[in-house]
Amino acid sequence: MANLELYKIFIIVAKEKNITKASEILNISQPAITKHIKNLENELNTILFTRAKGMQLTKSGQQLYDKVLPAVNQIIEAEKALTSNRNINFGTYATMLSRVLGDCVAEFYQKNNKSKITAITDPYNSLFEKLQNYELDILVVKKLEEKDYDSSKIKYIKLADANFVLIANNKSNLSKKTITIGDLKDKIIYIPRGETRSSLGFLELAKNNELNTQIKKIDSVTMSNIIQKYDDCIGLANKFYMKDEIENNKVSILNIDFKIPSTEFGIYIHKNNTFPDLMDFVKILKNKFKV
Q1: What domains lie within the chain, and their CATH numbers?
Q2: Which among 1, 19, 88, 191 has the fewest CB atoms less than 10 Å away?
Q3: Which residues of the chain have pLDDT under 50?
Q4: What is the pTM (predicted TM-score) of this model?
């Protein structure tokens, strides 16, 4: 008789190509995963992975993966539909989690002591792939075009528009005036690493006005530290991410006479994956942004 758990482990290892990552997702020790894979190979009398550079599928392994993936996904989907209290696999950006959504996770734990949230902050494309493969229950990221995902299976819930602002050191002369686009000429400007409607719109604005600026892509925490230390730098920042620095007068929002596009973000969940604890977490997220 087929051991379905072995096939679930096999699918996760094949997707991640890494025993360590599979161990984190499955909450199973690495030696146990290695043993399970070996057991499956013995049952099938074939080698499923080469182990020279990570866990790469062999020809036999790829054939097995293609055949069992749909069935394993259906099993995972059925388990999720029938289970009321269970762990939530939550994907988002690292900065979003640490600077905006951390208190939402804390609030969930206060109300739900039988479930656990596992936060995953992989690169954006990887996160959405994990959601579609049922490795994530919920994703909080920027809004996608509907053509980029299967809207018959995945539901989008708007949370808010992230307003991007230009920030500077409180001692900067720019903080004392209304800034025109020309005032940014030859300045050093830091922008977020991820591509958003706001950052792309700003780059287009800089290009069209031939600003000759030094555009540097960094994370929000590093941007905050640089702006607070040097008075000759400007940052394009998500206002949500800089809430603490702004409210405590660590940085100044520049007054500008031009518009920076906002970036909408929200929740993605499977339409058939609505177990109670997950919906409690969705409610907490919506309350955070008053939706």
Answers
A1: 4-82 (1.10.10.10), 88-161+264-288 (3.40.190.10), 164-261 (3.40.190.10)
A2: 1
A3: 1
A4: 0.68
